[in-house]
Design goal:
Layout (H helix, E strand, L loop, with lengths): L6 E5 L3 H13 L3 E5 L19 E3 L7 H15 L4 E5 L14 H29 L3 E7 L12 H17 L7 E7 L5 H13 L9 E4 L7
Parallel strand pairs: 1-2, 1-4, 2-3, 4-5, 5-6, 6-7
Helix pairs in contact: 1-5, 2-3, 3-4
C-alpha cells in the first residue's frame, strides 16, 4: 500500500524520469511532478506517458527564481509537506551544428537546463533546513547515449548538473537533511535504476549523507 509521504519529482521528460515516477506512484498516495518545458528546437525528448494515479502536475518555469519558490509552495499546499525531492537531469538530444545553433536555444539551455536547478535546490534546501529533515536526491545518467557527437547542448547541461551534484554532496555533512546523488550507466534499464534509487531512499536508518550511488557497470561506490 502507498505510504503517507510527500514526494516532489522535477526534471526532464524522459524514460528515466518516467521510471522514477512509477516508483513514486507505488510509494505515495499522491506526489507532485514538475517537468522542464521542451522548448529547445530539434530536441528528441521522450513523449509524455499517461498520467499515473496520484500524480499532481505543477507548472514550472525553471529560469525564474520566483517560479521555483512558487513551485515549492504549491507542492507543500497539495501534499502538505515535502519529505523527498527527486531531481532528474536527463536532457533531450539536440542535433545542431555549431553554425546552425540558434541563439534562442542557448538562452533556453541556460535558463531551463542549468539555472533552474540552482533556483529549485535553493528553495528546497531552505525548507529542509528549517524543518531539520528531508531528502534531496539528484539523479543523472552517466553516458546512456549522451555521448552523441552531434549533440553538444545536452552534454553541456548534464556536465553542469553533475558538477553541481558533486558540490552539494561535498558540503552535505553539516546539514540536518540528507543529500544523495545517483548516477547510472545502463541505457535501457531505467526501471532497474529507479528501483535501485527507491531501495536506497527507503533504507531505514540511513546515515550516508553526501554519498554518490553508482548503478550498473560503474559499480556502487562513492
Amino acid at each position: 500500500m502507498p505510504m503517507t509521504r510527500g514526494i516532489i519529482i522535477a526534471g526532464n521528460e524522459s524514460a528515466l524520469l518516467g521510471a522514477i515516477e512509477t516508483e513514486a506512484a507505488r510509494r505515495a498516495e499522491q506526489y507532485t511532478l514538475a517537468l522542464i518545458p521542451d522548448r529547445l528546437s530539434g530536441s528528441t525528448a521522450t513523449p509524455s506517458a499517461a498520467a499515473l494515479p496520484g500524480r499532481i502536475a505543477l507548472d514550472w518555469n525553471p529560469g525564474s527564481p520566483i517560479s521555483a519558490r512558487t513551485l515549492v509552495i504549491a507542492a507543500e499546499n497539495r501534499i502538505e509537506h515535502i519529505d523527498e525531492a527527486i531531481l532528474v537531469c536527463d536532457p533531450p538530444l539536440i542535433h545542431h551544428t555549431a553554425s546552425d545553433l540558434r541563439l534562442s536555444d542557448v538562452e533556453m539551455l541556460v535558463n531551463d537546463q542549468i539555472k533552474g536547478w540552482f533556483f529549485l535546490v535553493k528553495e528546497l534546501t531552505a525548507i529542509f533546513k528549517k524543518r531539520g529533515e528531508g531528502t534531496l536526491a539528484l539523479v543523472y545518467p552517466e553516458g546512456s547515449g549522451k555521448d552523441d557527437t552531434s549533440d553538444f547542448l545536452g552534454p553541456a547541461a548534464l556536465a553542469v548538473f553533475r558538477s553541481f551534484t558533486h558540490s552539494l554532496l561535498t558540503t552535505a555533512a553539516g546539514e540536518p537533511y540528507l543529500t544523495l546523488g545517483f548516477t547510472g550507466s545502463e541505457s535501457g534499464d531505467e526501471a532497474g535504476f529507479a528501483a535501485f534509487i527507491t531501495k536506497q531512499l527507503e533504507e531505514p536508518g540511513r546515515r550516508n549523507n553526501g554519498k554518490l550511488y553508482k548503478y550498473g557497470k560503474l559499480g556502487i561506490f562513492r
